[in-house]
Write a structure and sequence with these properties.
By secondary structure, this protein is mainly alpha-helical. The chain is 74% helix and 3% strand. The chain has 14 helices and three strands. Helix 3 packs antiparallel against helix 4 (110-143), helix 4 (110-143) packs parallel to helix 9 (222-240) and helix 13 crosses helix 14 (311-328).
Length: 329
């Protein structure tokens, strides 16, 4: 198996060249894999199991929502986009990561490196945008239920979904252009995947434009968090003055969104603080995996959280399993 993976890496993930030194500016070395030692096989099988579970639970929930007409509501449509976004992000990371765990040469071509950065960043920003839309959905459903159908009409849902994808694509494309044009004086990335900030630090020239644009992006993406915080504050204020049963119902529908949001933000902040602010790290596999937590854990836990907490999805899952059992009996 290692032979085939090595062949795949040389043929597809590395640029053609007669000698490695002739393309030192065209490849990147992922040095963080050195911290894994002789545990690579263990991490490979854990990653493979995790990735297969991610595919299974996300695709299963998407198919369930697609087939069940009772779930063709704005909240579940947004949820489908969230799950698809997580499939994109986890796939862009896991495949290369598992290949590197089975070979000894942990390199990636410049083209594939920037492709991975683009997909991972699209996943990150789109996830934030979709979570913002979902928070607004819950806010309108609880704060102004009589206007819910009007506000979240089919046309408006399509506009929100398109905006949640197009805006990140445009913003990340501009950032990628600023990074691709940089001449580099090194090719070692202290990560297990390609990271834009690590590449910017390798530049031989002034990177002020990249730093300014990165700061603008961080400030821009703080707006959704403010909006989410405002939405849930209003939701809590409305629920405070309602009956106990209504409070429980609102809490039940909002809880998965809150868990998803808190977990995603906390794991993402760790990566931003560690890489962007140059915090000194303890060199071990624990910090290496902590830096990829936002790529591995949310795509696996989120569909389970929504499936277990949202009553409509839970009912449909129980019904399908019970019907399947009767057919087998």
């Amino acid at each position: 198996m290692q032979v085939y993976l090595r062949y795949f890496t040389i043929c597809f993930l590395l640029p053609p060249a007669t000698a490695l030194e002739n393309v030192s500016c065209e490849i990147f070395i992922l040095t963080a894999f050195q911290e894994f030692g002789n545990k690579k096989d263990t991490y490979f099988w854990l990653s493979l199991i995790g990735y297969l579970l991610i595919i299974f639970v996300n695709v299963s929930l998407i198919i369930l929502i697609y087939q069940e007409k009772k779930l063709h509501e704005p909240m579940y449509i947004f949820l489908c986009n969230l799950l698809f976004c997580e499939l994109t992000g986890s796939t862009s990371f896991y495949i290369k990561f598992m290949i590197d765990l089975k070979i000894n040469v942990h390199v990636i071509s410049r083209t594939f490196c920037f492709t991975q950065i683009f997909l991972i960043y699209i996943y990150t920003v789109t996830e934030i945008c979709i979570l913002t839309v979902m928070a607004h959905d819950r806010y309108i459903a609880i704060h102004a239920p009589l206007h819910y159908i009007t506000i979240f009409s089919s046309a408006n849902i399509q506009k929100l979904i398109v905006a949640s994808w197009i805006y990140p694509i445009v913003m990340i494309t501009i950032g990628m252009y600023l990074s691709i044009r940089l001449p580099l004086c090194g090719n070692e990335i202290d990560r297990v995947y390609c990271n834009n900030w690590e590449i910017v630090k390798l530049s031989c020239t002034d990177t002020s434009s990249n730093n300014i644009y990165g700061s603008v992006m961080l400030c821009t993406f703080s707006i959704p968090f403010i909006f989410i915080f405002y939405s849930y504050c209003k939701i809590l204020s409305v629920c405070w003055n309602t009956s106990r049963s209504q409070k429980y119902k609102a809490f039940q529908t909002c809880l998965p969104h809150l868990i998803t949001l808190i977990f995603f933000i906390s794991s993402l902040l760790f990566e931003l603080i560690e890489s962007r602010l140059n915090v000194k790290r303890v060199k071990n596999e624990i910090t290496a995996f902590a830096s990829i937590e936002f790529l591995t854990v949310p795509p696996l836990l989120n569909p389970l959280i929504y499936g277990l907490i949202l009553p409509e999805i839970r009912k449909r899952v129980v019904y399908l399993f019970s019907r399947r059992r009767k057919q087998l009996m």
